[in-house]
Amino acid sequence: MHTRRDWMKTAAVLGIAATGHAGVGPTAGADQPGNVKSNPIDIGSRRELFVDDYLIDRLDGVRLELNRPQRREIVFRTDAPWEGNGSAYQSVFRDGDRFRMYYRGGHHTASKAYEKQKNSWETLCLAESHDGIHWTRPELDIVEFEGSTKNNLILDAKMVAEIGGSPAHTATFKDTNPDCPEEERYKIVIFGTKPRGLYLMVSADGVRFRLKSKKPFTTVGAFDSQNLMFWDSVGKVYREYHRQFDEGVRGIMTATSTDPSRFPEPQWLEYPGAPEQALYTNQIQPYYRAPHIFMGFPMRYVDRGWSPSMKQLPGLEEREYRAKHHPRYGTTVTDAAFMTSRDGESFSRWGEAFIQPGPSSIDSWVYGDNFIFWGMLQTKSDLDGAPDDISLYATEGYWQGDSTSVRRYTLRQDGFVSARAGWKGGSLLTKPFTFEGTRLELNFATSAAGTVRIEIQDEAGKPIDGFAMQDCPEIFGDTTARTVTWNKTQDVSSLAGKPIRLRFELQDADVFSFKFSGADNEAE
Description:
single chain; mainly beta; eight-stranded antiparallel beta sheet; 33 strands; disordered N terminus
């Protein structure tokens, strides 16, 4: 099996640049107008984001910019008696009219809190919310803790002892496969040792789970992280992603199957052009507004060793205490990265952090912090009349005190990356593509003086009559869905199915995504 390091060596020989983010920006040998080398891309009526160079031919004065989410409030603390500072591997998703969060409880065994109260983290807990901000613990009456079942515990080690299962390493999801039996609609991916591998637990209500099979669905991997699975509605397959080590470096493997009970031998993810980095988790998921695009939010693992700067970071006393259990517990720091893929195997990964540890003097710069939960939620904006936000969640204060904090972060819809031009302006030209629909919708933001204009060209790069740049009035504002007009018309149905290009002219503006709407069987 070829390793990721084998690829990096090959890349060096071929002169492939290790750029800050892989595969993004104008590429050498890109098709030029009038010199088409491949068939036009068929985008139908799906939403397209500028998270990679998939549709980009040329950039002139425009850059693709990673947009960091906004740090919001602490929405939850794992401070119930059966919980603790080792809470991790959280999964969040919408389930009908509520949101659900699954997470492990207990203290980290290398923390001071564990010495005082040896709460096991071999547990799985459930919290629920109606707004993504206020979370409650349902009383489930399933697992006994100190003589009572009035708690939100779903699993403990005794319930999965037959497979040597570890509730501390789980991912929970609602299976969106329309052919999934209702009694298996909710699934848990769980690590077991009898034999060693990943197993599935299933449930009809997302609360009471049973083991689907005593046979693991995959056995090649380290599995000592959050290992996950989901239904790919575009590819019509299940995808699983799990932890493995490649020559000592923490990495990610994947496989696909139409049957969630069995998967073929997994393959390494690839990051063309990206430098090697240790990725502790993967958090890969289809983006719910554009499910043909996979997004990952891995926690990056960086052991920086002891240095004067390391000793100046917050929590030195706790850091030195943890280091007595293992040196890396004291010298490793973590942040969150961002990566995307069109096939689920080859990812464009940004070198810059998506979430930085931050300036706080407490509960920051800790190994295990900035761990983004698996899943994202669409939540109400705190601005009256504004479109909904995307809420992401991440850990803070991992294994420091008596509990772990859950920090909420928000981002505009589609706002992960933008095509950005400053005051001097710039342009972006797409590759040729075909579409379905009657109008073009734009997700964009400008300053008060900024503008966006769009020209529709033919495959060779010639402006189409009636849709040239001078036919497009200046567009300004800040919205997730503005319909573009040319000479007072919005109707582009005459161009549907024909190869076209879009040319964007931007000045002090960001464009996040576009979508052709009004088609039959319109894709969201």
